[in-house]
Amino acid sequence: EGGTYETKQQNILKFEKFLNKEDAEVSVLDIKGYRLIGFENTSGGYQITESQYERIVNALHTDRPTILCTHVPFYTETLTEDTVKYWKSNIVMGSPDFPPNESTQKLLDYLSTETNLVVAILTGHIHFNHEDYIFGTIPQYVTALSAEKNLRCITL
Fold first, then answer.
1. What is the pLDDT of residues 103-147, one digit of tens each?
2. What whole-number distance in Å separates Cα of residue 65 and Cα of residue 85?
3. CA end-to-end span of the chain, whole Å?
4. Counting Cβ atoms within 10 Å, is residue 120 exposed (0-12), middle (13-18) or buried (19+)?
5. Can you name the residues that pair with 31 across neighbouring β-strands?
6. DSSP assignment string, 21-89
7. How does pLDDT run across 62-106, given as a tens digit for each residue?
8. Which one, of 118, 126, 8, lies nearest residue 16 by Cα?
9. How far apart are CA 131 and CA 128, in angstroms?
10. DSSP one-letter code for 121
């Protein structure tokens, strides 16, 4: 039932009007006073490209509170134990098991040191719920597998 290609396609259709079909690598949506930046980070060992880095940072230059949306969570120490227990590897962006490439490291450095308006990061990938802060300041919400009917309702 859950987790099939058909189920995933049906779920994607619900959000189709919000998706930038021209560019799946980075999408920007301004809605209800917020900026949502979605980006692909499942390829190449949970990394981003230089082009993605430039476009994400450019999109972060806004006066709107911003929510980053991506599939793979950002590394935090508190996420490590449960991730390794479940997956036998720390399959998150920027972890010691998947060291960041130059572009990914630049994004991590930017988020940790620059004044920005990132108010939350929404992710999935690891199939269990987890809430934490990256760099001690930006809340990251990881949501369990949607095919098992897990979801999070975000009100803007």
1. 999 999 999 987 779 999 999 888 888 999 999 899 999 988 776
2. 34
3. 31
4. middle
5. 34
6. TT-SSEEEEEETTEEEEEE---STTT---HHHHHHHHHHH-SSS-EEEEESSPBP-HHHHHHHHHHHSS
7. 999 999 999 899 999 999 999 999 999 999 999 999 999 999 999
8. 8
9. 10
10. E
Can you give the pLDDT at residue 113? 81
pLDDT band at 8, cuts 50/70/90?
A: low
| Structure tokens belonging to residue 32 | 């209800």
Cα torsion 84, 87, 90, 94: sign = negative
Contact 125, 72 (CB under 8 A): yes
How far is residue 46 from each of residues 11, 56, 91, 100, 140, measured CA to CA in Å?
23, 16, 8, 8, 16
**Tokens 């259709």, residue located:** 13
